[in-house]
Specification:
heterodimer; A: alpha+beta; Gyrase A, domain 2; Elongation Factor Tu (Ef-tu), domain 3; six-stranded mixed β-sheet; six-stranded antiparallel barrel; 8 helices; B: alpha+beta; OB fold (Dihydrolipoamide Acetyltransferase, E2P); six-stranded antiparallel β-sheet; three-stranded antiparallel β-sheet; 20% helix
Chain lengths: 374, 123
């Protein structure tokens, strides 16, 4: 076994350096956290125009074989068998205690199998898990030498349709395999910012040229990991390692909506995934604590790890993600909070340094989603 | 007396009568990124050199403003509470933080002049 951990780079690495990005190590990759524009303006650019993100560090996995969909259902509480051709679905790998090992996107490519996009930090574990659990029922492979770009924002459609008019047929959570500018791509109308947008999986060797083509548009600017985080936080979207982890079920992470009806108790293919009994009991009996949106009073940001107390000083929760939301121009946060404190009007406080900041439980998202549903 | 600099990337500008204006340098401001919140100390508070007296929150993280001198805080730049971006836009001017009446004016001698600070940040 090798001891030294090597740092990887994406196929767009040189472009980030040339663009003047601040690079940071993230999930084993040297990634751009921000560009000279700065996190706030990058964030606003993605909300108002089109932001280009390099997400090539994420894992792109393919499952092939006639039983691949049936096999994957053993690992996710989600309907994969009836996932229509060229559609995507959000899914979760559960573990034996019903906790979440990772969240992922699954696309049904028909004869080309199932296409999975998983988190960079979890991808080796995910691959091993797939290989070990269902490797004898279908072929599990990392698709190497691919890049993944995300183009997000209200102008994303306009920019991309100039290159490929046929994307006008696509609605949110659909996929298309096509040639963009002569390059074989898999394009999905999806993303993780709450905005309309696309993710484009393409050969590594073509990624720089394609990114340059997109950046020729005055609507497009690079956006780094810093703004990616504030965008997804405002959109109320869960981040693995924050709102999701091995120790909390999808119900505790307020992701019950992602559990397909057909896989729930009483459904045609109920259960038969890891941790079903615990997830079922959480769905039926409720949970002690769960993920909620938190609005801090005032202007001081409340960040990850801040303890939440009730009026009597009892610890009742923990902030899982928090910071400043540039689009709402105020601090925003997500927390894991005791069920008893989730009722409206309950008086709770986040501890920031030595101060108690009054916080309010609010509905997520902080910024309305603008997905294109046709 | 000319402007001085601390190793914590603050500028200290003597104004006579043992009064100094304190802010953060352009270098510090660039490192922090976009500022979103500044928590200022109270006028009348005493500060001693090395003490954390203010918190600067950027989109990325919270950082402390460390008192580069000892004394009494006689004025704070209240505009920063609503316009933290003043620090980003004009860190050496409109984006000043506090005015301090020095209790040990000799502490100024321990600070760097502009040339030393320049070579300090180039290291």
């Amino acid at each position: 076994m090798s001891v030294a951990k090597e740092i990887n780079v994406t196929p767009l690495y040189q472009m980030h350096l040339d663009a003047g990005a601040k690079m940071v190590p993230f999930a084993g990759y040297e990634m751009p956290v921000s560009y000279p524009l700065g996190i706030k303006k990058e964030h606003t650019h993605a909300r108002e125009k089109a932001g280009l993100f390099d997400v090539s560090h994420m894992g792109q996995i393919r499952l092939t074989g006639t039983n691949a969909n049936k096999a994957l259902e053993k690992l996710v509480p989600v309907d994969i068998i009836d996932l229509p051709l060229m559609k995507l679905r959000y899914a979760l790998f559960t573990n034996e205690s019903g906790g979440v090992m990772d969240d992922l996107m699954v696309t049904n490519l028909g004869e080309d199998g199932l296409f999975l996009v998983v988190n960079a930090a979890c991808k080796d574990n995910d691959f091993e898990h797939l290989q070990k659990s269902i490797g004898d029922e279908c072929k599990v492979e990392f698709i190497e030498n691919l890049a993944l770009l995300a183009l997000q924002g209200p102008r994303a459609y306009e920019v991309l349709s100039e290159i490929e008019p046929s994307i006008s047929e696509m609605t949110f959570m659909t996929a298309k395999q096509l040639k963009l500018n002569g390059i074989d791509c898999l394009i999905t109308r999806s993303g993780y910012t709450g905005e309309d947008g696309f993710e484009i999986s393409l050969p590594a060797e073509s990624a720089q040229d394609f990114a340059k083509l997109l950046l020729q548009s005055k609507e497009v600017e690079w956006v780094g990991l810093g703004a990616r985080d504030s965008l997804r936080l405002e959109a109320g979207l869960s981040l693995y390692g924050h709102e999701l982890d091995n120790h909390h079920t999808p119900v505790e992470s307020s992701l019950s909506w992602a559990l397909s009806k057909v896989r729930r108790t009483g459904g045609a293919r109920q259960g038969n995934y890891l941790g079903y009994d615990i997830v079922r009991s959480h769905l039926e009996k409720g949970v002690h604590s769960r993920i909620v949106g938190i609005q801090p009073e005032g202007k001081m940001p409340v960040r990850d790890g801040a303890v939440i107390e009730d009026e009597l000083g009892n610890e009742v929760g923990l902030v899982t993600s928090g910071g400043f939301g540039p689009s709402v121009n105020r601090p925003v946060a997500i927390a894991r909070l005791q069920q008893s404190c989730i009722e409206e009007g309950s008086k709770i406080f986040a501890l920031v340094r030595d101060k108690k900041i009054a916080v309010e439980v609010v509905e997520l998202p902080f910024v309305k989603h603008s997905y294109y549903r046709g | 007396m000319s402007i001085k600099f601390s190793e914590d990337h603050e500028w200290i500008e003597p104004q006579g009568d043992d009064l100094v204006v304190i802010g953060i340098t352009d270098f510090a401001q660039e490192q922090l990124g976009d500022l979103v919140y500044v928590e200022l100390p109270e006028v009348g508070d005493d500060c001693s050199k090395g003490e954390n007296i203010s918190v600067i929150e950027s989109v990325k993280a919270a950082s402390d403003l460390v008192a580069p001198v000892s004394g009494t805080i006689v004025e704070v730049n209240g505009r920063l509470e609503d316009e933290p971006e003043l620090v980003t836009e004009d860190s050496m001017g409109e984006g000043w933080f506090i005015k301090v009446k020095l209790s040990s004016p000799k502490e100024l001698d321990d600070l760097m002049d502009e040339a030393s600070y320049k070579s300090f940040i180039e290291e």
